[in-house]
Amino acid sequence: MYQKPNDRLKGQTAIVTGANSGIGEAVAMALGKDGANVVVNYVSNPESAEEVAHNICQHELCGTGIAIKADVSKEEAVQAMFRQTIDQFGTVDICVANAGIQRDFALHEMPLQEWQLVLDVNLTGQFLCAREAIREFLRRGLKEDVSCSMGKIIHMSSVHEIIPWAGHANYAASKGAVVMLMQTIAQEYGPQKIRANSIAPGAIQTPINKDAWETPEALEKLHELIPYKRIGVPSDIGAAAAWLASDESDYINGTTIFVDGAMTCYPGFTTNG
Ligand code: BGC
Questions:
Q1: Ligand 1 center to residue 171 CA distance, Å?
Q2: Is 219 in the pocket of ligand 1 (CB under 6 A)?
Q3: Which domains does the chain have, with CATH numbers?
């Protein structure tokens, strides 16, 4: 889906975690298109991160993209990424805590290690990134010529922040927890004009859920869960993120925007339950 570039994020710097593929890549591209400098964070596959960063720099209205490696579940790595970003661009205005993983097991077979890993990346990673972002926002202070808020945090959640998901307890628990993290940040730092919101994607066509769209049969089955009858594409999320990061959404704080083709609207009841 082509989105026209504009300059609503000009002069701002964004860190997007897990931005070398899928939803993170689309978010990085969308923010770059609207003028932001973008840190394309990755943990593996540096070539793909460099490519995304390179693509961001292609349009004259776009900001600069750079790739920075950091495991978001590690405090020191996250702090180093923020330091490097601030050295390069002066500050951070937008933090998109997107990096996330799935490790699927029936609960009674789930090793503690796989529970922990998902919580470390999907929840602790979002905490660490949000914390560093807030520290930087408070240090820098409000710059009204750049944005009416001191900083914006966008948490990548999921429809599974409200839809229980058999076989994915670790993932669903991590996303359920992201709601309270995000809303608490919105409540705690609203007075400083820091905004925190979540995007809850439904089924978006990315490598994470390949099994659900790879074959026509799988896709047909997936459509039963989506009243809008199409799988989402990463740019659906990119568009929402760019708007949420901009002053156009200045009064949106402490909420989750579901970008899911109505997956959360009980599709099982479409034919009278
Ligand atoms: C998951 C996908 C899944 C989608 C809808 C996402 O959060 O990562 O694997 O397809 O939710 O169930």
A1: 9
A2: no
A3: 13-259 (3.40.50.720)
- 187 phi and psi, to 5 degrees? -70, -40
Which of 118, 155, 160 best tests ligand 1's pocket when mutated (most atoms within 8 Å of CB)? 160
For 169-220, how does the pLDDT look when each residue is reduced to its tens digit (9 = 90+)? 999 999 999 999 999 999 999 999 999 999 999 999 999 999 999 999 999 9
Rounded-to-10 torsion of CA 45, 199, 174, 230: -80
Give, for ligand 1, the residue of 159, 213, 264 to mutate: max count of ligand atoms closer than 8 Å to Cβ. Answer: 159
Distance CA 170, CA 176 (A): 10
Q: Which amino acid is at 229?
A: K
2-60: per-residue pLDDT in tens? 566 689 999 999 999 999 999 999 999 999 999 999 999 999 999 999 999 999 988 77
What is d(CA 273, CA 261) in angstroms, rounded to the nearest whole number?
A: 19
CA angle 46, 52, 53 (to 5 degrees): 85
